């Protein structure tokens, strides 16, 4: 199974200022800018990069892997002894149990140092 590093989340103090800096000053492409209530997700990628820089409000910081099959990926990590969360999806800013639609199926885990990882199904 391919595990593709597709997003690294960074903390920022002002989302609009950060978006402007990365898009206008550095020339990153704005891939996503979604907002729902208190939640907002902005993802920008350097031209030619398969990995995005993510920033937002209403979610944690960390890294994101993308896989073809979240259920199989989760089972693989469980089999290796990794403590992973259940499969979830999002409805607006609310996390719900079970699979969602395309790019809306996730599970989460932490490494031994507390770094947060999200695994997202394509």
What are the SSEs and their pairings?
Elements: E1 4-9, H1 15-25, E2 29-36, E3 39-45, E4 52-57, E5 63-67, H2 70-79, E6 88-91, E7 94-97, E8 106-110, E9 116-121
Parallel strand pairs: 1-4, 5-9
Antiparallel strand pairs: 1-5, 2-3, 3-4, 6-7, 8-9
Question: What does this protein look like?
Answer:
This protein has 122 residues and is α+β, with helices and mostly antiparallel strands. The chain has one domain (4-121): 2,3-Dihydroxybiphenyl 1,2-Dioxygenase, domain 1, CATH 3.10.180. Helix content is 17%, strand content 42%. The protein has two helices and nine strands. It has a seven-stranded mixed β-sheet. Strand 3 and strand 4 form a beta hairpin.
In short:
This protein is an alpha+beta fold and 122 residues long. The protein has 2 helices and 9 strands, in the order βαββββαββββ. The protein has helices at residues 15-25, 70-79; strands at residues 4-9, 29-36, 39-45, 52-57, 63-67, 88-91, 94-97, 106-110, 116-121.
Q: In terms of quaternary structure, what is this?
A: single chain
Mean of residue pLDDT values: 95
Q: What helical percentage do the residues reach?
A: 10-25%
Any idea of the CATH topology?
2,3-Dihydroxybiphenyl 1,2-Dioxygenase, domain 1
Distance linking N and C termini: 13 Å
The CATH class: Alpha Beta
Number of domains: 1
Low-pLDDT parts are none
Question: What is the H/E string?
Answer: EHEEEEHEEEE
Query: Main sheet, how many strands, which sense, barrel?
Result: 7 strands, mixed
- Number of DSSP-assigned strands: 9
Using only CA atoms, what is the Rg? 15 Å
CATH homologous superfamily assignment:
2,3-Dihydroxybiphenyl 1,2-Dioxygenase, domain 1
